[in-house]
Amino acid sequence: MSAPLLAVENIGRRFGGFVALESVTTAFEPNKVTAIIGPNGAGKSTFFNLLSGVLAPSTGVIRFKGRDITRMAQHRFAHLGIARSYQITNIFPDLSVHENVRVAAQAFHARYDIWRARAALTELDERADAALAVVGLASRRADTAKFLAHGQQRALEIAIALVAEPELLLLDEPTAGMGPEETKGMVALLEKLARERTILLVEHKMKMILGLSDRILVLHHGRLIADGSPQHIQADPEVRRVYLGQNDGYA
Ligand SMILES: Nc1ncnc2c1ncn2[C@@H]1O[C@H](COP(=O)(O)OP(=O)(O)O)[C@@H](O)[C@H]1O
Ligand SMILES: [Mg+2]
Hints:
The protein has helices spanning 44-51, 74-80, 97-108, 117-135, 150-162, 180-194, 206-212, 230-235, 237-243, and strands at 6-15, 18-28, 33-37, 59-64, 67-68, 82-85, 168-172, 198-202, 215-220, 223-228.
């Protein structure tokens, strides 16, 4: 493995007496797509919350490019180069598509030099438009966000994450609630994004994951039970057993 972008050692998280994630040790190489799968309640979102600074781990260490970021404040993660989207759509519904991205750009590239204010605003607008172009929403920039189709709202969230120009993008169920057509569009976007950055995604659509991912991690009851190539995971008897009878399994 080349030097990992992100490495975790024995990270775990408890909620009271309940262990949501138990002592996971693994590392992620740059410029690969890794899917994290597992039944509901397996600890996938908790894992993402630890990797993006939303939650502090109860145990273990997180390193990004070799640097210990375990106790770092959440707002600093974006500046390190780690951005994420959430399982539940998370946009400002009454702002325009462009404003949604510009607000994020403003929060990220905060500048207080009033003499540069006008130039800085233009730059933020341009950054927002560049991110919208990447996700295919340039033509919808003036529309109110709540009037976008569901799939476009998910793409908008990715544009919001992209304004920080992250090296590592964490996407929690980017195709949740999408039909086959919207899913195809999202897969095409993810393939494009994956050419230039490292992507970790939580997903349920097995066919999509098998085609898109370089590697798959399987969580079950907070434990990492399998880790390998799509072929390896498909053939793994424990993974098959965990997914047996699950309607979000190998369908
Ligand atoms: N903030 C929390 N407080 C208490 N329990 C939580 C919290 N977040 C998650 N859990 C529990 O941890 C387990 C793993 O949750 P989660 O990581 O959301 O699973 P997944 O994303 O794989 O469906 C679940 O049993 C869930 O109820
Ligand atoms: Mg989840």
